Amino acid sequence: MRHRVKTKSFHRPKGHREALFVNLAVSLIEHGRIETTLPKAKALRPFIEKLVTLAKKESIHARRLLNARLRNNRKAATKLFKDIAPLFKERNGGYTRIYKLDKRRRGDDAEMAIIEFVEFPGKEE
């Protein structure tokens, strides 16, 4: 039974799972879009959206919390504060989108997806 289970465990201990989300989030912040499995993309979405909401506050407290949640990756935190968060000033959530891909991963036939920011600096539209 899944009573009171909020997230998938991905068959990893808590520390490994948190490191996975931090690494995925940093890659998404740096590149604007990443390709990963569909369950990981769905689990990453609330994590990254909370980070963007925190970055929109522009306070020292928010900056310190963001650095802590990104495990002191200051380069990604600075990019989130200076480049990404200002694009979403008028938006109240929904900062990312997920596209399901037709192709599946060759080794284990996992469903693949692309997760990206709705707006990203340097994105051609």
Give the structure's gist in a few sentences.
By secondary structure, this protein is of the alpha+beta class.
Report on the structure:
This protein has 125 residues and is an alpha+beta fold. It has one domain: 50s Ribosomal Protein L17, Chain: A, CATH 3.90.1030. 46% of the residues lie in helices and 17% in strands. It is built from four helices and three strands. It has helices at residues 14-31, 38-55, 60-69, 74-84, and strands at residues 33-37, 96-104, 111-117. The chain has a three-stranded antiparallel β-sheet. Strand 2 and strand 3 (111-117) form a beta hairpin. It is globular, with a radius of gyration of 15 Å.
What's the topology here?
Blueprint: H1 14-31, E1 33-37, H2 38-55, H3 60-69, H4 74-84, E2 96-104, E3 111-117
